[in-house]
Amino acid sequence: MYPPSFEYARPQTISEAVALLGQHGDDAKILSGGQSLIPMMKLRVARPGWLIDIGRLPGLSYIKEESGYLKIGGLVREADIESSELIRAKFPIIHDTARVIADPLVRNLATVGGNLAHGDPANDHPATMLALGAKVVATGPRGEREIPITDFFVSIFTTALGPNEILTEIRIPAPPPRSGGAYFKLERKVGDFATAAVAVQVTFNPDGTCKAAGIGLTNVGPTPLKATQAEDFLRGRKLDEAAINQAAQLAADAAQPSSDLRGPAEYKKGLIREFTKRGLRKAMERAQGGK
Ligand SMILES: Cc1cc2nc3c(=O)[nH]c(=O)nc-3n(C[C@H](O)[C@H](O)[C@H](O)COP(=O)(O)OP(=O)(O)OC[C@H]3O[C@@H](n4cnc5c(N)ncnc54)[C@H](O)[C@@H]3O)c2cc1C
Fold first, then answer.
1. For strand 210-218 and strand 194-204, is the pairing parallel, antiparallel, or unpaired?
2. Regarding beta strands 7-9 and 50-53, do their DSSP bridges make them parallel or antiparallel, or are they unpaired?
3. Does the C-beta of 29 come closer than 6 Å to ligand 1?
4. pLDDT at position 291, please?
5. Which of 6, 25, 37, 246 has the most CB atoms less than 10 A away?
6. C-beta of 167 in contact with ligand 1 (< 6 A)
7. Ligand 1 neighbourhood includes 162 CB (under 6 angstroms)
8. Spatial distance between the Cα atoms of 109 and 221, rounded to a whole number of angstroms
9. How far is CA 164 from the centre of its chain?
10. Cα 111 to ligand 1 centre (Å)
11. Does 179 contact ligand 1 (Cβ within 6 A)?
12. What is the pLDDT of residue 1?
């Protein structure tokens, strides 16, 4: 199926792209990898009059550590994340996440920035970024601003990005020593969106108690969710089986799934419970140097 007709612009700089957004207003959409926008246009769910293609803008495809952050440029593709030694070694939770997104063809084009900017609660990176306490850098007519990820997902398919802002960077605080994390997802078949998924990131104190925990939930609500009660419960505790079970129950209580073709709501809550347990155990293992 072909999308409806549209005008196309390929700016050479971020400021040119921002200016084009300002010029065309609500009629314009940023095009990055096109892996969500083009299918939506083909289905007539989106009908932008203008596509502002930033997919080949130079200087936005970096993955680097700087000033206490992992910085992921706005045009980094899923395939770049999968092949990054830095991500694999220091941020295995992000590697876990990228490798279960869609299929290799999609991952060669789809960007992490687009995955967040799309605001789809079924997308996988939002939960992981919630667990990691990331910040999103938005560049607009007045320059750059940082948006904490907890403020970023406003409602279904709506983010805190302004109409003429572009997501140009994702900043993830470098995890302190004794940290580990993991992402667990159930998909009906390879390449599918999550029936449900959980991202868990934990930092431990030297005595083995939990210093901080981040738990993000995928596709069990109108936005990606943060299981804050489970996170608060874990702080200061040893992660023994009783604590893990209790945190998993609190995470399941935070989920607001609906019954649909992927399964009944109760089943999805059960998945959140089980994946939180697995995530916490894996986070503990990785914090102790495991893979
Ligand atoms: C077959 C298939 C299976 C998929 N399975 C999964 C899956 O399992 N898990 C998953 O998470 N995703 C999945 N996806 C979705 C896809 O991975 C993401 O939504 C994609 O990464 C979006 O990034 P993009 O660069 O392609 O964005 P685009 O499609 O180009 O844009 C998506 C939206 O975000 C906006 N946008 C994009 N980049 C920016 C930016 N830098 N600044 C501001 N706005 C921006 C666009 O205007 C548009 O509204 C699947 C897609 C397909 C086609």
1. antiparallel
2. parallel
3. yes
4. 82
5. 37
6. yes
7. no
8. 27
9. 21
10. 7
11. no
12. 81
